[in-house]
Amino acid sequence: MLSTHEYANDLILFALIVDCGSFSKAAESAGIPSSVISKRIGRLEKSLGNPQSCIGWVRYCNGSACHGV
């Protein structure tokens, strides 16, 4: 189970991915390897009990549904 700190950090990272539009751009922006991003998002999805749920939201938001909100 994730600690509150880990969960909050992973959610912030998820928001960065949405803002940047991709894992690689978010990794570059955060100054961390994209493999770390991938592992942390996988951990977040597992904690939410729905694998691939975060990826679906990134795709949904990058399809302009979340832009301008």
TrEMBL record:
HTH lysR-type domain sequence ranges: 9-49
Alphabetized Pfam families for the sequence: HTH_1
Gene Ontology molecular function terms on file: DNA-binding transcription factor activity
Species of origin: Xenorhabdus bovienii str. Intermedium
Protein name, UniProt field: HTH lysR-type domain-containing protein
Entries under Gene3D superfamilies matching the protein: Winged helix-like DNA-binding domain superfamily/Winged helix DNA-binding domain
